[in-house]
Structure formats: structure tokens, C-alpha cells
Amino acid sequence: MQLTLGPLQYFWHRDDVFKFYREAVQWPLDTIYLGETVCSKRRELGTRDWIALANELAESGHEIVLSSLALLEAESELSALTRLAENGRLRVEANDMSAVQILRERKLPFIGGPGLNVYNHVALRLLREDGMQRLVLGIELGRELLREFKDSGEPLPEFEVIAWGRLPLAYSARCYTARALDRSKDDCGFRCIDYPDGLPLKTREGSPFLTINGIQIQGGEYCDLAPDIAELQTAGIQLLRLYPQANDMAAVVARFRKTIDSGLPAQRVGLENGYWHGQAGRQQMPGDEVPDSAQAIISA
Question: Which SS3 state, helix, strand or coil, does residue 252 take?
Fold first, then answer.
């Protein structure tokens, strides 16, 4: 089973991004995804910068993939997407159907990101015909749908599942961070850079609920499928995606690699894994408690 580092969901300073990824190539990963998937206004790195960094990291021997935006709103974003598709070297993760169309027109193989709506084997077959070689399962898709895919008799792509990180639940044309800080989207001040792991959102009663990340809403807690690795492998998952976080990412990667290599069950760290089991995403299955020693890994 392979480990992948998903695209950075948050807005970090340019130097922090370069430092993070130049350390990441030293970690026991198989694939690294690069690119802006949330908001095109985040311009610490532009499209050309992401492509240049991807080509640099490709020399490390890792598979490097360029990830596209999940929500396109302007012609300029289509132009940037075309530059990604025409990078000439690396596969692209398509996170919406605009990306699928551009890649299909150029007859380029691609990876289907979790933003694509793939809920049955017919959609899976159509995307395979378009050139999709790997599918990152949508956040709410679990073992039952994967079983349906396998039972359909259709040729299957590789399957990747989000195994660690705050789950990307929804995208909007509005900016949640700007609104929370009483600013307009057009005059946001790029304030999401002040929240390198997102802005926590609580209910009116003060209970932790969700996480705000620009135009994206995430789960409030970390999804953790490390205790489910044996089942994931049996179900046909070939790759585990770990989403970057500001602190202790090397420890997260090491924990998953140790669990895979040892074959021993992992002690729970993250607080959510319900979607894989066909339950509410924020549920913890089974109901064991997170040990105190895990807080360094999940702290932001």
C-alpha cells in the first residue's frame, strides 16, 4: 500500500511552502500532490511556481502530481488550468469536470480528485474512457460503494482514499474566512494566511463544529483511517492520502508508514472515520478514545 501527500489545502507563506515540500521529499512517501485546490486568489505561489516546484521535486524519485482547483469561477482560472494540463511532464489531478474536459481533449491520462462526483459504476466507466487512471474517492464514499464498483465487472482504476486530515466538505463562491472577519471577498486581505490550519468554527452553544478555510468548509476534527488500514487494503484501496498540516506532519507520515510495514493495528489518533463505515462522517468507529500522547500529532 502506498502513501500520498495530498495537495496543501491551506494558505501558507511562500517560504514555508518551499521549506515544507523540500522536507517532505525526505519522508517515506510514494506520491506528492502539488497545487492550489481551494482559491485562485492565493498567489504566494502562482501556476508557474507550482509547476517549477513540481519539476524540482520530481528529481527526488517520487511521483509528483499537479492538482487543479475544485471550483473555477473565471476565465483566468481556465487559462491557469490549461497551463497545468500542458506542463509536458506530470499527471494532473482533476478536481472538477472542466479539468476532465481539458485533459480529455488533449488525450492526457489523469487522476480523478475527490471533488468529482462519482457515485456509480457508469460514471466510473465514463471517466475511465476519458483517461482517468486513478480515483481519489469522494469524502463520503466508503466501503459499500467500493464493493459496488468491484462487483460491476467494469475495468477499475487505482483507488486512493483520504486517510488523514480535515475533510474538504464543501466549496462556495463566497469566502467564509472573509465573512467571519467582517470583510468582503474582493477585499479579503488574504487573511486566511493567518490560519495555517484553518479557522475553527463553533456552534452557538460553543461546541467545536467545522473548520473555515477560505471558500472551503472542512470537518472540525481530523479523519483517521490508520486503524482501518487492513480493511482498506482488503477492500482494494491501493493508496492512502494524508493531507498536510502545519505541525508534526513528519510524525503523521511515519505513523502511517509504520502501520503499513508492520501489519499491526494502529492506535487511534484522529477523531473521525465514520464515512468509510457508512456512518456520519464525524463519528468515531469503533468507539475507542484518543490517547493523550496523540495530541502532539493532531494539534494545530
Answer: helix
Determine the structural domain holding residue 134 and report its residue range. Answer: 2-168+221-298
Distance, CA of 75 to CA of 86 (rounded, Å): 17
C-alpha cell recorded at residue 116: 468529482
∠ Cα 96 12 183 (to 5°):
80
Cell numbers found for residue 50: 507550482
**What type of residue is 259?**
T
> If residue 79 lies in a helix (H) or strand (E), which one and from where to where?
helix 75-85
Domains held by the chain: number: 1
Which residue, among 150, 156, 155, has the nearest Cα to 135 in the 3D structure?
Answer: 156
Q: Return the closest-CA partner of residue 175 out of 47, 50, 73.
A: 73
In a 10 Å sphere around its CB, with 0-12 CB exposed, 13-18 middle and 19+ buried, how is residue 23 labelled? Answer: exposed
pLDDT digits (tens, 9 = 90+) for 37-54: 999 999 899 999 999 999
| Domain assignment of residue 197, yes or no | no
CA distance 225 to 237: 12
Phi, psi for residue 69 in degrees, rounded to 5: -60, 150
**169-223 pLDDT, tens per residue?**
999 999 999 999 999 988 999 999 999 999 999 999 998 899 999 999 999 999 9
For the record, the C-alpha cell of 287 comes out as 468507539
CATH number, residue 225: 3.20.20.70
pLDDT, one tens digit per residue, over 77-119 is: 999 999 999 999 999 999 999 999 999 999 999 999 999 999 9
Q: Is residue 194 packed enough to be buried (19+ CB in 10 Å), middle (13-18) or exposed (0-12)?
A: exposed
